[in-house]
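Please go through the sequence and fold tokens given here and tell me how the chain folds. Record follows.
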Amino acid sequence: MVKIGNIQLPEFPLLLAPMEDVSDPPFRAVCKDNGADLMYTEFISSEGLIRDAIKSRKKLDIFDYERPVGIQIFGGDEESLSIAAKIVEVTNPDLLDINFGCPVKKVALKGAGAGVLKDIDLMVRLTASVVKSTSLPVTVKTRLGWDEQTKNIEEVAERLQDVGIKALAIHGRTRTQMYKGEADWSLIGKVKNNPRIRIPIFGNGDIDSPEKALEYRNRYGVDGIMIGRAAIGYPWIFDEIKHFIKTGTHLPAPAIEARVEVCRKHLYKSVEWKNPVVGVNEMRRHYANYLKGLPNIKEYRGKLVTLKTVEEIDEVLNEILRVYAGFRFEKSPIELIDYHQNCPVN
């Protein structure tokens, strides 16, 4: 078993990464259904929470069926993060996570997210201020460093552990890499195998198949894996990895019925949580991923991203079920898109 504070997770847990404009309650619901062991909210601005910004407050919504679930905050000011931590605690998540990894300019160049990687002393002070402000287990998600010359994750891990974090998730790229190139897990492995490190270490970056998940577990010894982009439109990745690790065999690819069923649930939850207009509009970014691999799907996809009511979308999904009944999907590599290109930070 893996423990984060008092939270008990299964052996080698699979975590859903916090992704802005992706990891909302509707998306988390379908990932939980399909094997995610621990999930996080989209990251929430500490300044936004303090200003009572509607969008920031809305992101605090969590539901009992999601548990264990963590709320993730970001910011570059000790006092603001401390106050935000107190606000978060009232909503009763299972843990509080600090984002020191977001690479996008609107965050990193304002001294938050991965921008804090430029100043490790500041990162430690920010983390300590959050730990002191809450009784929740505090965890951190970060990257290897700001650039190739500052890959200081080994020092970061020790110092953050010393101020009281209960787990650390590491994305195997620097901030300047964004999502380009291959994630370097060798430093993640060094952190995990450092005899001073006692907290769980979770690896993140480029996990797109059960084979890679098993290989990286065995090679680097991490306590679990955090999955982000590979789950977008394909929440089955969690159960597929678990099955492969347990049996060495693959689950069959989800059939068209399963894909439409999960897509439909995602849509219904989106409309329920947001409202019919916003829910329908924001669901449009997901259809291509759910329906990927279907031949001649472009026409239907075009309809799905232009229709404005759930009823109309339901009709198209039912038609897809009829047209592609019995279609057998081939196992193919999951495409790891740069989700920030499609989901800009506001």
In short: The longest strand covers residues 69-74.
